[in-house]
């Protein structure tokens, strides 16, 4: 039972990265913008957060640095695709390539750096509960932040006026513009908030999840988070569920190796990516279901006054 509790705890930890990034990308796509640059954006945020943690020793400043780096890169991306009407997919891929190279260049001097031992967190009394205490109540605060973020985003999108406007911009920007809403500014704000959340996820990887910097350390998590939005049919609660599903698959490989299962490590390392492909293939078989749930203007440019 203790082994299962540790596996559940590791699943929550690994899923937090995907959940925060996936929810950020969900905000983008609800506004009608596809950002394929999440991988590079998270890498830049990871090195920004790690460097800040090295120099200040403050994890929260590191998260702020990651969020700032993510928001800044997302702003540049937003200006290109929203105001200059460049192709969203090409610009996103360029952002991903730039972030990969830039983070590798900046991170050279930090490759040998190590952070001090991370503080341990636990919720008083609840952490002493057998099994559940180890599995659920000894997590970093960002784990609980991801759950609260999913709940808050669901309320925002479906219960608030601002959320309704955001969804209207993603469904029909022409109609929202006709009603007097500043569609471009709303889209830019959504892109920057989404970028900031991806930045927090990237900083979490380098500062908490691994506590070190390695070139390319995001290792496809940005792409999995992007796939999560489709898997979740653009709903926050499903993003959270999908994140923990993929986080569990990721941790399962280490659990099986620890149990001495005689399977090639390369095959176990493939599990998260294979599961992502399988899920997307299964979902894609019902194209009508995706069309009903997908924002109608997703990936489409908007020209005011045209």
From TrEMBL:
The cellular component terms of Gene Ontology attached to this UniProt record, alphabetical and capped at eight, are: plasma membrane
Keywords in alphabetical order, please: Cell membrane, Membrane, Transmembrane, Transmembrane helix
* UniProt membrane topology term: Multi-pass membrane protein
Q: Which InterPro entries match?
A: ABC_transp_permease
Entry superkingdom: Bacteria
What does the record give under GO molecular function? transmembrane transporter activity
Q: Which residues cross the membrane?
A: 6-26, 33-54, 60-84, 91-111, 141-158, 188-207, 213-232, 239-257, 263-283
Cell location: Cell membrane
Question: What Pfam family is a match, any one?
Answer: BPD_transp_2
Does the keyword field hold Ubl conjugation? no
Cross-referenced PANTHER family, in alphabetical order?
ABC TRANSPORTER PERMEASE PROTEIN (PTHR43370:SF2), SUGAR ABC TRANSPORTER INTEGRAL MEMBRANE PROTEIN-RELATED (PTHR43370)
| Name of the protein in question | Nucleoside ABC transporter membrane protein
């Amino acid at each position: 039972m203790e082994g299962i509790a540790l596996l559940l705890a590791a699943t929550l930890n690994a899923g937090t990265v995907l959940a925060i990034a996936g929810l950020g990308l969900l905000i983008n796509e609800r506004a009608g913008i596809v950002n394929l640059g999440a991988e590079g954006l998270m890498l830049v945020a990871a090195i920004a957060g790690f460097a800040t943690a090295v120099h200040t020793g403050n994890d929260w400043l590191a998260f702020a640095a990651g969020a700032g780096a993510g928001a800044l890169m997302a702003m540049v991306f937003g200006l290109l695709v929203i105001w200059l009407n460049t192709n969203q997919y090409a610009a996103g891929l360029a952002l991903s390539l730039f972030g990969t190279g830039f983070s590798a260049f900046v991170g050279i001097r930090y490759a040998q750096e190590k952070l001090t031992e991370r503080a341990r967190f636990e919720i008083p009394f609840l952490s002493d509960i057998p099994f559940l205490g180890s599995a659920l109540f000894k997590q970093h605060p960002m784990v609980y932040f991801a759950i609260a973020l999913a709940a808050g985003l669901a309320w925002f999108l479906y219960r608030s006026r601002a959320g309704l406007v955001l969804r209207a911009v993603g469904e029909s920007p022409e109609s929202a513009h006709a009603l007097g809403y500043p569609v471009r500014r709303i889209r830019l704000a959504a892109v920057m908030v989404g970028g900031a959340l991806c930045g927090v996820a990237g900083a979490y990887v380098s500062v908490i999840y691994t506590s070190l910097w390695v070139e390319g350390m995001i290792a496809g998590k940005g792409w999995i988070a992007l796939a999560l939005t489709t898997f979740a049919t653009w709903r926050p609660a499903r993003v959270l569920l999908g994140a923990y599903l993929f986080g569990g698959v990721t941790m399962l490989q280490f659990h099986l190796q620890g149990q001495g299962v005689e399977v090639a490590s390369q095959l176990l390392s493939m599990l998260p990516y294979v599961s992502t492909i399988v899920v997307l293939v299964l979902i894609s078989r019902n194209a009508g279901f995706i069309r009903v749930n997908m924002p109608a203007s997703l990936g489409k440019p908007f020209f005011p006054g045209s």
